[in-house]
Amino acid sequence: MGGTDARGRRGAGEDFAGELIPLHADEVKAPRGAFLLASIANFLAYARILALLPLPMVNQIVSGLSRRERQIMDFLYERDHASVAEVMEGIADPPSYSAVRAMLRTLEEKGRVTHVEDGRAYVYRPTIRKDAARQGALTHLLKTFFDGSTEQAVAALLDLQGAALSKSELDRVAKLVAEARREGR
Fold first, then answer.
1. Which of 49, 73, 123, 128 has the highest local Cβ count within 10 Å?
2. pLDDT (tens digit per residue) in 31-56
3. Which residues touch 159 (CB under 8 Å, ≥6 apart)?
4. Residue 93 pLDDT more than 70?
5. Cα 65 versus chain centre, distance
6. pLDDT tens-digit readout, 121-133
7. CB neighbours of 80 closer than 8 A, spacing ≥ 6?
8. Tell me, what's the pLDDT at 94?
9. Under 8 Å CB-to-CB from 180, ≥6 apart: which residues?
10. Rounded to an integer, what distance in angstroms lies between the CA atom of residue 135 and that of residue 131?
11. What are the angstrom distances between the C-alpha of 8 and each of 15, 91, 95, 123?
12. What is the model's pLDDT at position 37?
């Protein structure tokens, strides 16, 4: 479980043995508990904003995409930009080159991606910023699976943890909860 999948992509491996995993694209590594803590912290930080987002905005960000289109968008968010060939190398069980090119064209027509020419290749990038897409996805997740309850979502995140959080990690989560309480969230 060295942090890469069968295709050699970094950050794709699951880590349940206490191994260090990448936290960011710049390859800063931290124990899995820190990754979970960062996820919980991000979730709590966005909880107030998420509750205020109008449902049409959430639907625009997370709906209207096929499974393959979401897979391509996930890859583009991970990489920031990619050519058709890079998308084919980066997604599982890719369809043909022309099918990927057609899906990217469809995503462009839907306003989800834009492209620039780089020599003979088009390089595609998402039009919605990653943080806005994350907020939309979290809002959708919170409303769909947790009845809008941040508490239920945090409890589910904590249940995912294989190893127990350290005292300092639990203190950090407690600090975030206390901060949210002070701010009335």
1. 73
2. 555 555 556 665 655 554 444 444 44
3. none
4. yes
5. 16
6. 999 999 988 888 8
7. 125
8. 94
9. 44, 47, 48
10. 6
11. 15, 12, 19, 22
12. 59
Give just the sign of the alpha carbon dihedral 83, 85, 86, 92: positive
Q: Which residues pair with 124 in a beta bridge?
A: 82, 115
Residue 115 near residue 80, CB atoms below 8 Å? no
- Helix (H) or strand (E) run with residue 118 in it: strand 113-118
Name the token pair of 135: 């907020």
Tokens of 185: 């969230």
Backbone angles phi and psi of 90, in degrees to 5: -95, -10
- Three-state SS at 135: helix
Question: Which of 55, 110, 122, 37 is closest to 82 using CA atoms?
Answer: 122
* Residue 50, token pair as written in the block: 């998420």
Residue type, 179: E
For residue 166, name the pLDDT band (cuts at 50, 70, 90): confident
Q: Are 173 and 40 in contact (CB under 8 A)?
A: yes
pLDDT for 10: 41
* Closest to 14 measured CA to CA, from 6, 67, 38, 166: 6
d(CA 102, CA 96): 10
CA distance 150 to 52: 13
